[in-house]
Predict the structure.
Amino acid sequence: MSERGWSGDRTEPEADSATDSATDVVSPYPVADDREVEASLRPRRLTEFVGQPRVREQLGLVLESARRRGRPPDHILLSGAPGLGKTSLAMIIAAELGAGIRVTSGPAIERAGDLAAILTTLVDGDVLFIDEIHRIARPAEELLYVAMEDYRVDVVIGKGPGATAIPLAVAPFTLVGATTRAGLLTGPLRDRFGFTGHMDFYQPAELEQVLRRSAALLAVRLEPDGAEEIAGRSRGTPRIANRLLRRVRDFAEVRADGVVDRPVARAALHLYDVDEIGLDRLDRAVLDALVRRYGGGPVGVSTLAVAVGEEPQTVEEVAEPYLVRAGLLARTPRGRVATPAAWAHLGLVAPAPAADAPSLFDRL
Ligand code: ADP
């Protein structure tokens, strides 16, 4: 398998460099040296890919039947949160097909010409991976429809009434699109994918498996209880698990005897401000303000942001998604509300609803 060019085209949403390292350590986006290390930790074959049993099985069938027919498989869409393994799967698809892969991203394709240049130089059977495909520019998207359906691009020469479209052939290829926001994909684009794989967050046991594999590749001595401790704080995300493993390894090498067990993992993650369920300093500050200052809400996001000294956008995009997923915070039309689990996480008891508070039955 050849992995040619284009990687440089990727403009990925990196974690905001303005946020401090305590926030970065649990960011689902690649930060600092992640990209380099991740390349060496990526699973290479479908059998090495941990978790996602449904997607793996479905994809296995799609690839096997394509191999038997000797034709490229249908175009494949992978959707799911950042860090769950979409890029890794795209590379595995190419490896399993014995095909070359070209990698680019939606934001890197600003003009139709950018995409035409890539498409017309594809080799028969190539995989074209477009990350963040929902961010592709509209004229390029229209060009992509025709390429996906008819293996053709129409290059328009000239402007106005004298313009002519010259059709160019595109070698049969498989598009693998990845998106963190499947809902933002236009209908016509979504319809042109023959297979969609939805990636879920990982179970702790699956993350332990990811960690064991990474530890072996990085020559880290990881004890089972150390793996369990790190997995529980990784927010269901392999990218975060691998990053925490590296931070704990550093700590183990400098402050301990190099072995990562539960006490070492706990001490290291305490130092990095990552608590037992993977909340960092900002997440806890948001919960704390919501519960202690505003009695559990409802409170508006801007008020909450002022209380923790952050921009509303940072609270909304960095802290809230995981707090909502962890069942600690609810977004309601009247503002943010802490759930009883949030109170419990802070060691407090949620107040019982007032006796005269409207109940569900009042509305019946
Ligand atoms: P995405 O493209 O969804 O943001 P990536 O494919 O870049 O995610 O995955 C980030 C890192 O997490 C990879 O370097 C890889 O090491 C690890 N990873 C992701 N999914 C898995 C998995 N299922 N098994 C093992 N490692 C994984």
User: Anything to note?
Assistant: The radius of gyration is 24 Å. DSSP finds 15 helices and twelve strands in the chain. The chain has three domains: 21-199, 204-271, 281-363.
